[in-house]
């Protein structure tokens, strides 16, 4: 089965690349230029009309939402060691953070990036940056409470939920804000999973 990932460095496509490397699935990579509002240009707009990364093509099927892609690939390719089954006691927390990595954290990470580094300086809004940072901290606190002192989010092992929220810590770390924003238990969890060879390989591509 052929898998093609459309990827831009530092973007949410890192989640998918990380999973592909963890699973050892064969894939081809097409690197697209990340440009606010025109990512990948006209050609990429035919794959993802939203012009955002990631997108993935599996045989003839195209998907464009990073955490849905994680779930799709893990189920389609029977990566049971990276999933948590519905009868497991940690199933709820697994889903909460698999989805919460994007639907909870994602918007605030984007707004924080936009209003601190991505937008031209004259278009940045300080209040928006503060509001986004406050919300990131609130969710990080909720995450810390839920994580307690676990090494992984669910089932005492690494799963796609760790990839989903792991990308958020990756983004916050790119800005050098992890110590300021994340509680200690979150930093310890992130240190553990950020050393995984699959992530290191994905970051290097
Ligand atoms: N919810 C989407 C968000 C995708 C997204 O916003 N990607 C960013 C990069 S991290 C992007 O392509 N931005 C380019 C733009 O907004 O023009 C997902 O998780 O896949």
Any descriptors?
single chain; Glutathione S-transferase Yfyf (Class Pi), Chain A, domain 2; alpha+beta; binds glutathione; 205 residues; Glutaredoxin; 2 domains; four-stranded mixed beta sheet
Layout: helices, strands, pairs:
Layout: E1 3-7, H1 13-23, E2 28-31, H2 41-47, E3 55-58, E4 61-63, H3 66-76, H4 91-103, H5 106-118, H6 126-147, H7 160-174, H8 178-181, H9 184-194, H10 197-204
Helix pairs in contact: 1-3, 1-7, 1-10, 4-7, 5-6, 6-9, 7-9
- Provide the helix percentage: 55-70%
Bound molecules: glutathione
Order of helical and strand elements? EHEHEEHHHHHHHH
Please provide the count of β strands: 4
Spans where pLDDT lies below 50 across 5 or more residues: none
Multimeric status of the protein: single chain
- CATH A-level architecture of the largest domain: Up-down Bundle
- The pLDDT mean sits at 96
Strand order of the largest sheet: 2-1-3-4
CATH topology of the largest domain: Glutathione S-transferase Yfyf (Class Pi), Chain A, domain 2
The secondary-structure class comes to: alpha+beta
Radius of gyration: 17 Å
CATH secondary-structure class of the largest domain: Mainly Alpha
Q: Tell me the distance between the termini.
A: 22 Å
Main beta sheet, described?
4 strands, mixed
- Estimated share of beta-strand residues: 5-15%
The global form is globular
How many domains comprise the coordinates? 2
């Amino acid at each position: 089965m052929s898998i093609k990932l459309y990827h831009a460095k530092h973007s949410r496509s890192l989640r998918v690349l990380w999973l592909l490397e963890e699973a050892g699935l064969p894939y081809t990579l097409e690197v697209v230029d990340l440009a606010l509002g025109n990512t990948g240009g006209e050609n990429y707009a035919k794959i993802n009309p939203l012009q955002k990364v990631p997108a993935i093509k599996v045989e003839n099927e195209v998907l464009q939402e990073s955490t849905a892609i994680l779930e799709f690939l893990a189920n389609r390719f029977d990566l049971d060691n990276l999933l948590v089954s519905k009868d497991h006691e940690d199933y709820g927390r697994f889903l909460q953070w698999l989805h919460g990595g994007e639907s909870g954290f994602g918007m605030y990470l984007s707004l924080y990036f936009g209003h601190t580094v991505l937008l031209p300086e004259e278009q940045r809004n300080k209040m928006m940056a503060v509001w986004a940072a406050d919300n990131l901290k609130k969710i990080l606190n909720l995450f810390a409470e839920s994580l307690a002192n676990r090494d992984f989010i669910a089932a005492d092992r690494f799963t796609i939920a760790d990839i989903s929220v792991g990308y958020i810590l990756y983004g916050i770390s790119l800005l050098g804000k992890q110590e300021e924003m994340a509680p200690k238990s979150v930093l310890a969890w992130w240190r553990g999973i950020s050393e995984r060879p699959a992530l290191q390989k994905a970051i290097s591509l």
